[in-house]
Structures are given as structure tokens and as C-alpha cells.
Design brief:
Distance between the termini: 38 Å
Strand content: 15-25%
Number of domains: 2
Number of helices: 11
Length: 325
């Protein structure tokens, strides 16, 4: 008997083609926007394919999720989800690895731009200043911390190889099959930070990682370290980061992930004027947005749904205890 898949976002034509071609053999596919009775459509669903549930469902509608076995996200992270009102039997999976390559390139681009003072020197040229004595930071042979050695972190690792780096990898197990200089867990965070010239934040936002980098951690970093965050803003204490940047002009940061963003909060807002600082590069959390990104993400998510339909283990299942704030 076929299972029922309810798609709760509006796919474009290419996404819809992937969904229909890959899933229709084993499942009946419905689109929430076309269903006259939303409650009935949700009640009959075995699988929900969602992009941003907090925009696609009202809180009251989760009472109809009793028969839903899996919610597969098009997005990667789960920190924006209302796990506290999800039914206990609902399994939720993030779209692991779907945006990793593009995000890794973006993170490296930020690190290169900051290390070579590209934006600062460009601005000087605009002002008629030809500062040929301006020095930049060498990446070759440098120490690189990758805090969150999962899909994105491993893609960053690949891109760094021509620089003959020393990689300090942090993940949940403290182990990896890749050739790194050091592998540890968040218990080793301050040691890793103290050794690193470049620090990439790619770890998920959970109860354990929220605010994990603050005043103490900044004090353990090198004075001229470069910090790149393409994960979630809340992993870093906003006030402590701003004050450290303000008081340590040689320290630099690339910020792609912010504390209050439209996807989760409905608006963009910062408490401090980060983008006015000369030692900061910012981007609007678009590190994963390249041509074809959503098509690729759909392919990743659909493959996970296929594995579920075939009774196989799937990727990216969230532990709801990590997200009960």
C-alpha cells in the first residue's frame, strides 16, 4: 500500500519534477497549497516534506500530525522548529549535506578576503590611498579550526588541502577518518581555539552549543585570528564578539549567520553595528545560495525520503532533546 506524502511548501517546476519522478512509484503525493481541507490533508499524511514549518503550519495544526511518521526538511538545520508542540511520534530529519559545497566555498572566500585585507584596501584605493606596504595573512601552513566537522566542515577541509594546513577538527565523537592534526570534542574547544589562526564555525545550534563562544573563548584566541561563522548566530555571544572586534582590531570576523534573521524571526536585526567595523565582512546568510541550490537540496531530501520508504536508515534525524529550549 502506498504511503501519502504531503508537500507543504511551493516547489518550482524542476523541484516538482524531481518529487514526482522519484517518489510517485511508492507514494501518493499531495501539495498542501492545492488541498481544500488542510486538516484532512495533514491527518492523511504519512510523510510531510517541508521547507520552513513555522511558516507553513499554524501551531494548532500539529494536533493533526498523529499519523505523520516523518517530517523531512528542505532546510538543513532544526533550531527554528517548535519541537515542544510536535507529537512525540514525529521523526524530523534535516537536509544533511545539501548545501555543504557552496557553504564551504563561501566560508573560504570570507577567510581569504579577510586575510588579504581585500575590502579594506579596496576602500583605501577609493579614497586615493595606495598602501603598498599593507601586509596580509598567509594561509599556507596555518592552523585551521573547524568547529563542527560534519558535511560543511569536511568540504572546508577538502578546499584547504592545497594550503598544507594543520586541521583541528571538533565534532561529537572526537574522531575522524580524515587526516587531521588534531581531533576532539567541544571539551577541547579552548585548546583548539588557542592554537588556531583561522576558526570556522559549522556546528549545529543546539542547547549545548548555544552561546558556546563568548568572552572566555575569545580571550583564548590568537589576537589576529580570523573567525568565520556560517552556522548559526546564537552559537556566539553577540555582545562579546562585538566588543572583542572593537578592542582587538587585528582580530577579524566573517559573519554569514546572524542572531535575528527573517527565516526564523521574520526580520533582520542586530544589537551592535558589526558591518561598520573595518575588521568584519558580512553576508545575508546566503552561503548556500548558488544556481541550482534548491534543486540540489530537493534531490538530497527526496533521496532521504526514498530511503525511509524503503525501510532503510535515514540521515539527519534530530534528537528533539537538543532543541527543547
Amino acid at each position: 500500500m502506498k504511503q501519502n506524502i504531503l508537500v507543504s511548501f511551493t516547489p518550482n517546476s524542476k523541484q516538482r519534477e524531481i518529487i514526482e519522478n522519484k517518489l510517485s512509484e511508492k507514494a501518493n503525493i499531495y501539495y498542501l497549497e492545492n488541498e481544500p481541507d488542510r486538516a484532512e490533508a495533514i491527518k492523511n499524511a504519512d510523510i510531510v516534506f517541508s521547507w520552513n514549518p513555522i511558516r507553513e503550519f499554524d501551531d494548532e495544526e500539529y494536533k493533526y500530525f498523529k499519523n505523520v511518521k516523518l517530517m523531512q526538511l528542505l532546510s538543513a538545520g532544526g533550531d527554528h522548529l517548535p519541537f515542544e508542540i510536535f507529537p512525540d511520534n514525529l521523526m524530523v530529519a534535516g537536509n544533511v549535506g545539501a548545501y555543504a559545497q557552496a557553504m564551504a566555498e563561501h566560508a573560504l572566500a570570507m577567510a581569504l578576503s579577510l586575510s588579504k585585507n581585500l575590502f579594506v584596501n579596496h576602500k583605501k584605493l577609493q579614497e586615493g590611498i595606495f598602501d603598498q606596504s599593507s601586509k596580509s595573512k598567509l594561509l599556507h601552513g596555518a592552523n585551521f579550526a573547524i568547529i563542527g566537522f560534519g558535511g560543511i566542515g569536511k568540504e572546508i577541509y577538502k578546499l584547504l588541502q592545497p594550503f598544507e594546513p594543520k586541521i583541528y577538527a571538533v565534532n561529537t565523537t572526537g574522531k575522524t577518518d580524515l587526516d587531521v592534526f588534531f581531533a576532539g570534542t567541544v571539551d577541547d574547544l579552548n585548546y583548539v581555539l588557542s592554537q588556531s589562526d583561522f576558526i570556522f564555525i559549522t556546528i549545529p545550534l543546539t542547547q549545548k552549543t548555544k552561546g558556546m563562544i563568548g568572552k572566555t573563548e575569545f580571550s583564548n584566541m590568537k589576537s589576529d585570528a580570523i573567525l568565520i561563522n556560517v552556522a548559526r548566530g546564537e552559537i556566539i555571544n553577540q555582545k562579546d564578539l562585538y566588543e572583542h572586534l572593537l578592542n582587538h582590531p587585528e582580530f577579524k570576523a566573517g559573519i554569514d549567520a546572524w542572531w535575528i534573521e527573517p527565516f526564523r524571526h521574520g526580520e533582520f536585526k542586530v544589537d551592535y553595528p558589526f558591518v561598520e567595523l573595518p575588521n568584519v565582512i558580512g553576508s545575508p546568510h546566503n552561503s548556500g545560495m548558488v544556481p541550482g541550490a534548491m534543486v540540489r537540496a530537493t534531490e538530497f531530501a527526496v533521496k532521504n525520503i526514498q530511503e525511509f520508504l524503503n525501510g532503510n536508515k535515514i540521515k539527519g534525524v534530530f534528537d528533539r532533546e537538543d532543541y527543547l529550549w
